[in-house]
Design brief:
By secondary structure, the chain is mainly α. It has six helices and two strands. It is elongated. The relative contact order is 0.12.
Length: 123
């Protein structure tokens, strides 16, 4: 089932719960409706939050260029690469544009923690 179909199904559940609560007037039915509605509202809020992204080509460059020593993480190797200007010109140009330094730092920190803080997109 696609995400769109799941979303339609959830909206239909809320609508049916509203109809039932209106028909019966039972407080339990109204509570069930409000619980469903609040869950749906929370999902919409989360879905509408901005997503941090980096292009796949940049993620690939990071893995090619950052060869951390055993005692370093990729994030440490990245910071050292910036400080000592040893990253490729293409990667440096990307890093120094806008907030990309911080986005890449979040990406590498997320990888070190085992969570996806930054989404890798085609490009």
């Amino acid at each position: 089932m696609s995400e769109e179909e799941k979303a339609k199904q959830e909206v239909e559940q809320v609508c049916f719960a509203y109809d039932k609560a209106g028909d019966t007037g039972d407080i339990k039915d109204w509570k069930y409706f409000y619980d469903l509605e609040n869950k749906l509202i929370d999902k919409v809020k989360r879905a509408n939050q901005p997503q941090l992204t980096i292009p796949k080509s940049v993620a690939d460059m990071l893995y090619e260029e950052l060869n951390p020593l055993e005692r370093e993480s990729m994030l440490e190797a990245f910071v050292l690469g910036i400080n000592y200007l040893v990253l490729s010109d293409e990667l440096m140009k990307f890093v120094l544009t806008g907030n990309n330094y911080h986005v890449i730092s979040a990406y590498l920190a997320g990888k070190a923690l085992g969570v996806d803080l930054v989404k890798v997109v085609e490009g």
